Amino acid sequence: MANKLITIALLGNPNSGKTSLFNQLTGLNQKVGNFPGVTVDKKIGSTILPNGQRAHVLDLPGTYSLYAKSSDEQVVTDILIDPTNKNYPDILVVIVDASNLKRNLLLLSQAVDLGIPTILTLNMVDLAERMGRGVLKDKLAEYYNIPIVSINARQGEGITELKAVLSKSINLNAKPFLDVSELVGPVINREINNSQIPYLKLHQLIAASIISDEEAQKIQTKDTTLRYSKINRIVKEAGLRTEKKGGKVYTDKIDSILTHRIWGYLIFIAILFIIFQAIFSLVSWPMDLIDNYVSAFSMWLGKVMPAGVLTNLLKDGIVPGVGGVLIFIPQIAILFAFIALLEESGYMSRVVFLMDKIMRKVGLNGKSVVPLISGVACAIPAIMATRNIENVKERLITIFVTPLISCSARLPVYTILIALVIPDDTVLGVFNIQGLVLLGLYLIGFVAALATAWLLKMVVKTRESSFLIMELPTYKRPRWKNVGLIILEKIRTFTFHAGKIIVAISIVLWVLASYGPSKEMNMAEEVVKASFVNNSPTQVEYENKLAAYKLEHSYAAVLGKAIEPLIKPIGFDWKIGIALVTSFAAREVFVGTMATLYSIQSGADDEATIKTKMKQEINPETGQPVFTLPVGLSLMVFYAFAMQCMSTLAIVYRETKSWKWPLMQTLYMSGMAHIMSYLVFSLFN
Amino acid sequence: MSKSRTVANLNPGEKGEICCFKDDKLALKLLDMGCLPGTEVQMKFAAPLGDPLCISVEGYRLSLRKAEASTISLVE
After folding, report:
1. For chain A, which end, N or C, has fewer CB atoms within 10 Å of the first or last residue's CB respectively?
2. What confidence score (pLDDT) does residue A31 get?
3. Is the CB of B48 less than 8 angstroms away from the CB of A472?
4. Pick from A100, A256, A259: which is nearest to B59 by CB?
5. Looking at the complex, does the CB of residue A252 fall below 8 Å from at least one CB of chain B?
6. pTM for the full model?
């Protein structure tokens, strides 16, 4: 027996200490994936039992009942009622929070009737000690007929005992907690009584829609009511009073401040401000570090490797592509450190409580606030953060609108264009026009996000009804181990799942920008040399001119010319078209492409130089400068709306499990960008 | 007191006993969460904009929207 890998599943209410128990059992031996077909986190770890048995530990999503009300809860029921499911556990460990006894015992009572060997772990914190755990344990043992282990999941007490019980063989519960034959009519009764495990059969009949929805609802209501009345009896016999003090007293005190009509919002805004500041300021140092190392490494490769296609692919395609993945890690780490703290402490539920009414108006959820604000720094971690939103529709809408919020990668584009076309004057004595335009761009993004959410609210259909019946857990001190594990898990998910797509697209873009139709590319050196007839250029001048020529004749340029008819009405020429193509990798690439196109010395690609060069650029058709006020404004608005970020697309694909959403986002955002740019361009032209 | 008094009508601090539910679908979710007929609930506080509400049931804090609270009728 010791060689066969067994599966242990953890089942429990949200906030029952299940995650802490999972972390205690598996430590760093855990990985997170998705359950097939849905974006519900599937956490699997491994552990070795005292008898040498190796076991998979599956952390099932938190649920209050086996009668699922959300996709998270559905996953649990689907697994537990289907013995052929590959995640069907050999042993079920149900964690019961002793301070919320009755509600936790409901789920336990349903679980034991499914015919899976079950162990009850009674999670007790100090306050539960006072309720006389001996009496309680005896009573529970009497009614549930299963092994019981007391633990303190946060402190890690009782884990050794639990593992010891896990390594013994567990007897099945001989008599079910509830006789389900009283719940159903005679026809179904005959069917379930013929099967060995009636309650399991009942669930399977409901899942297979053999029992009508209406009938099922009646059965479920009766089942839950009968189970609760039996639980009430147990709790009464154990001499326990339900109303307990302890943790709840200070929770009430904290709530009177944190959900206060004035202080509540002020504190929430302050917390958002801190998160926003931290993402912006704390990450610039590690991001620069990664950036510098990656470019140094790619230059070093260029020196030590023999010149050729392979070297170019490596140093200009793959290495910067991988760098483009690594660069997001600091932002992801910091955002998730905060989110984990908010979740762990119990504050996140209060955020929902405070924001629900406002966000509901536009089809969003209280939990959408954190992703939306994080989107100002970067859409990648922001979209990953939407996993906390249980309602599928609200989550999809949040994912869809988050990239409309102006992120930090748009800032370099805005800055250079504002410096180029907006005068550095003040209006009304105090307001700097450049600053006002920048503020306006951020506002446009925010308004567009909310308006889009409101539109989607009408369009997206869902079978899940929106309700907010949610536990407000007691405040707890966060466990640093849990926070650390969340950060690690998010970085791992991003690097290995979205990372693959990002690297692949970078390589495609590299090919587009460095290769072109061979006829013109072959003549590159001669043409560029010929252009210097009257004066002999320095090596640097020559190389810059060559790079510009090559980019102007690359496939990216072919694309730029191909889309010129499309972008001409909004004021862009094919050279800007090239920048649109290349900056699809990331918006800030726009600046670098402009530098190459106007053959600016590498190393001196500071804003001032690029600005001067761009100012001098003349449109050959009109003889006027290319970057006029209408063109500049149109370009800014375009970048505010357009989905110019392959990393966002990669993460949306990862989070929605389909290309439908990233494609729709690209079409919608680029369409919006065109329309808005056209309006702005026509207005100012 | 009118007979259609619901949890949504409770004032902060006021207690009531659950009688029955007006919405069958929501009832199931509320039952799962421990809101059974005969159970005592106490209104704790409302969110600053008046919605959702926070009630105390079976010794823990439950938040729910006003519309949802108004489907829980109280014993007179």
Report:
1. N
2. 78
3. no
4. A100
5. yes
6. 0.82
